[in-house]
Amino acid sequence: MCRWIAYSGTPILLSQVLFEPRHSLIDQSLHSRLGVETTNGDGFGVGWYAPDLTTPAVLRDVGPAWNNRNLQEVAHHVRSGLFFAHVRATTGTAVQQTNCHPFRRDRWMWMHNGAIREFHRLRRDLALAVDPALYAEIEGSTDSELMFYLALTFGLTDDPPGAVARMATLVEETGHRHDVEHPLQMTVAVADGRRLWVFRHSSEGASRSLYYSTRVDTLRALHPDAGYLREVSEETRLVVSEPLGDLPGAWNEVPENHYGVVEPGLDELHAFRPVA
């Protein structure tokens, strides 16, 4: 599968999250502890929002993240308050740039860990459900990008939780018609430049790992000697496929079949259920 990070909060250098933590995303690309695969070297991507720009920048490549000089150059010079990063382990689709996450349309970004089981059998039926006005924009061959465009079709720009729920319903109903017992496995992050939504769901109720960071004020009380915690605001949050370090009390598991919303002044966690 894959590993990913979504960051929202005080603008920081991307390298502070991607490279510096003990179990950073770059370390996870080589030594994942909680993923299906230990190594995630089938491409990578980062996407970030810059001040006064509504459309995020995206850098993607097919090589492994751990030795990409362009990624190091960008990460040590770009500062952002909302960014995504993803390292890929393909579930069967080609290793090519258009299959690397995150995916982008206008101000929206999307990344995914998981799979649509038997995707090669379900793909045609699912693709036919994409709005014809959007279909031509699909560049790659992954289930993840198709899920993004299905969510866009079902109203992602107006109601992200509802659109993702309707997308999940379609995938599961289509899978069941093709005798796939547990069609969908997903942890998803989606952002619009100001807000971040994260989802953890699977048809069998055994989703891939996903964690969110504890409130910064609580961490300061727990670890007054951790100086870097004084540098970020109490609005700062991280959502990750697996924890970036071993700081006690720093990480909380996103509950099974739940979604979270992160935006200035508001953090919420809700039950997630596919809907017709």
What would the CATH topology be? Glutamine Phosphoribosylpyrophosphate, subunit 1, domain 1
- 3D shape: globular
What is the CATH homology-level superfamily?
A: Aminohydrolase, N-terminal nucleophile (Ntn) domain
Q: β content, as a range? A: 25-35%
Reading off the top of the CATH hierarchy, the class is best stated as Alpha Beta
Per DSSP, the total helix count is: 8
Number of strands: 13
**What is the N-to-C succession of helices and strands?**
EHHEEHEEEHHHHEEEHEEEE
What's the overall average pLDDT, rounded?
92
Low-pLDDT runs of 5+ residues are none
Helix content: 10-25%
CATH second-level architecture: 4-Layer Sandwich
Sequence of strands across the biggest β-sheet:
3-2-4-1-10-9-11
Instruction: Indicate the structural class.
Output: alpha+beta
Give the radius of gyration.
18 Å
Tally the structural domains.
Answer: 1
The end-to-end distance, rounded to whole angstroms, is 28 Å
Largest beta-sheet characterization: 7 strands, antiparallel
